[in-house]
UniProtKB/TrEMBL annotation:
Residue ranges of the region described as Disordered: 45-72
Organism: Streptomyces siamensis
Heme as UniProt keyword: no
Keyword field contains Thylakoid: no
Name the record gives this protein: Lipoprotein
Chain intervals with Low complexity compositional bias: 45-57
Signal peptide region: 1-31
Amino acid sequence: MPVPIRRLVVALTLSCALIAGGTACTSGANAKGAKVAIPAAATATPSAPAKTPSPSASGKTPSPSATAQKQKLAKTRFVANAGLAAGATYQWIYKPWKAGKFKKGAHGRKFTLIKAGLAGAFAYNRLKAALKNAQGDPTLSKAVAPLAAGIESLKNLPAKLRKGDSTDAVANTFNDIINQVKDAGKSAGAEVKNQVPSGSQLTGG
């Protein structure tokens, strides 16, 4: 029996609606349940930029000018201390000894020997300081290094001078060490000249 055209149209319309609805539901479900992938790079915590290591102050190499200045200062101090030792030795040990003022019966012998003892202690201390100064200059340090033992041997001689004991040997020993220091300084470009210390310097050491 032929189907009326109106019923056929209605049936066709309903079918389309059902198909469209199912498709929409399926699409909606897919959209709802779908997960959006997030790139790992977007969620990663930015790492701190690498720090550029700063040069260590202790690792810096001294400039040639700074090294030259240090060596010059070392020589200046060496010359000053050795010069004072030489001046004290000549003025209050060697010169009065040569003049015979250390001999028994000499006028003012006691006072001269006391002054010589002070000068000997002063000279020893200044020579020790000069040795330390010389360490700032390689050439000078090498030149005076062999004299360290001789300088140390002067330590107990001032007491002998004060007592008037073995004055000839003591005076000669001081004079010899001073001359050796002068020669060593001159060979390293640090010429030493006698510088007579003041009274306050002498008693202060």
